[in-house]
Amino acid sequence: MDDAWRSRAGDARALRLTAVTAGVVAAAGVAGALAGAASQLRIARAARPVTDRWQQVPVEPRGQARLGISFRPLQAQALGLDPMATLATLLDHPFQLIRLGAYWNRIESGPGRFDTGDLDRQIEAAEQAGKQIIVCVGPVKTFGYPEFFVPDHHLPEPLREGALVVPAAYQPLLDAAAAFAARLVERYRDREAIVAWQVEHDAVDPLGLEHSWRLSAAFVRREVEAVRAADPTRPVLMNGFLPTSVPVWLQQWWRTRDQGDSLVVAQQLADIVGVDFYPRHAVVAGAGWTVYLVGRISALRRRPTLLSWAAAGGPRLMIVEGQAEPWEAVTTPPSPQNRAMYSCLPEHVIENYSRCMRWNAHADGVLDAYLFWGAEYWVLRRQQGDPRYLRAFARIMEHA
User: Fold this and answer.
1) Which of the 8 DSSP states describes residue 334?
2) Whole-number Å distance between alpha carbons of 394 and 387
3) Is 0.85 surpassed by the pTM of this model?
């Protein structure tokens, strides 16, 4: 789900058990639910001495799953890095798959403008490095903070907060979004390295404190149809957030109960379902301490269902965002000298990956790919004198 994690950090900070939600908890057994939620809370110092424990963490074999990363040029800029130099550094590693994003308001900055120069250069660099590519064509939501990239000239007034964005109420926006996605697909469909198109990002989920509106399933369906019409030969990927704790699961269920969350809609519309997996994130910080939600395997209520569904012949399944950078209670992941952040230490890059590969092994190898989330942060850390995150990733590449 930052980036996506920034919006979700806002979700976590905003979490409240309303009377209705409390009723749901009561129906399921309030004592057990609250005990489960409490067991997933940790209070800790966020920054801690960085260690080399990542060298001892076992690396699970990947089987047939492809490994890769998502690349966020805007995140690289936010970290003070040169995007193309950062991409070149990452492409030197022997992974198979990279996900790139088309940011609508960057490509179409005004009426009649259409400049794909930045994306062209990213695709060309990935091709030259021998990588397979997934292109997220958006349009409304694309991975990378602030996730919402509609040009102003296509949205003279902001989307109404709390609203469900349906075709009948937003037909001009839908027409423009579908046309933009189709135009991108037509531009790049002859590139053999591109193996899938992603439509929207966490398509029908709200964007936390920044935006509470949601795209309707009908709106997204029209976009998917436009992409398939432009290229019927490649699969469509859609992704969604897999809650790893009881509080986040309750919040997500309540806010998307009318049409299901993004994973539900992805199962209905997509050829590939991508899962966002963030097992440890901050809720709130103060006085030198931070409260974290730390997910447990028992809290992943939907994981067995997703794996069984894929094994039974459903659409392909991949971990499209595996947490590999800190998710703290601030909008930019901190990088203190000689210290690392509790929400994602270097060893967690390996542990999060290996947990998913163990699930995969028990489900007859149904995962198509695992994409690490946070690669730009690794480059920042190395630039600051700490190569542990990049070396942890390289260790996976060597031993998986």
Assistant:
1) -
2) 10
3) yes
